[in-house]
Specification:
Mean pLDDT: 91
Distance between the termini: 33 Å
Low-confidence stretches: none
Strand content: under 5%
Order of helices and strands: HHHHHHHHHH
Shape: elongated
């Protein structure tokens, strides 16, 4: 997995830190947060661990940065795809198609890792809260756009987004137990609740992937 670089190659501090965070993020998604260590990141980058420690004095800060990078990147990708649809209703359909797609299991497992590890990692807990709030903010903005054009009905878009994301978060466990428990009926419950939350016709989201 190592991508050893030419030792004479020098990068700006900003570029080097970005490279460290991106690499740590890939490790977090592919191997789990517990594998994000200065030693392992250094091994993958082909540098000495001391270089990682120069940018991140504490491994907790590196873990938090890796988690934040991964979840922000996923959110950006998902919403970019959703907003390619022409109307808020179609955007919502695309959004839930992606959020419930089994191809997102790796990041779902990362969230499970983060929720559990945040009990003993204060920096990670802060980042988890930031990312959960960002999810609610993004969904609330989409809901508001639908309200503005008459597609959705919601008294408080932020409250609706919070309730919806809580249901999505609860489905993260299926990424770890999919081979043993069928969660398709739970995914269906999520969709029906979203429809009721936004006053959509029943089965308006039935085109989503579960």
């Amino acid at each position: 997995m190592s991508t050893r670089k030419n030792p004479t190659q020098r990068k700006s501090p900003v570029a080097r830190q970005a490279e460290i965070v991106e690499t740590a993020s890939r490790i977090a998604v592919n191997e789990g947060l517990e594998k994000v260590t200065a030693k392992h990141v250094a091994e993958v980058l082909g540098v000495v661990p001391g270089l990682i420690n120069h940018y991140f004095n504490f491994v907790d800060d590196l873990v938090a940065a890796a988690f934040g990078y991964a979840t922000t990147a996923e959110r950006t990708e998902i919403y970019a795809g959703a907003f390619a649809a022409p109307t808020p209703s179609q955007q919502l359909l695309r959004l839930f198609t992606e959020l419930l797609d089994t191809e997102r299991d790796a990041v779902s497992l990362l969230w499970l890792d983060a929720w559990q590890a945040s009990r003993r990692r204060p920096a990670l807990l802060r980042e988890v809260v930031i990312q959960m709030r960002a999810d609610v903010t993004a969904l609330a903005a989409l809901i508001q756009s639908g309200i503005d054009v008459g597609d959705f009905t919601a008294i408080d878009p932020s409250a609706s987004a919070t309730r919806i994301m809580s249901l999505i978060d609860g489905l993260s466990v299926r990424a770890a137990t999919r081979s043993f428990i069928d969660y398709e009926v739970v995914a269906e419950l999520v969709l029906r609740n979203v429809e009721r939350e936004l006053d959509l016709p029943e089965h308006a989201l039935s085109g989503t992937s579960t």
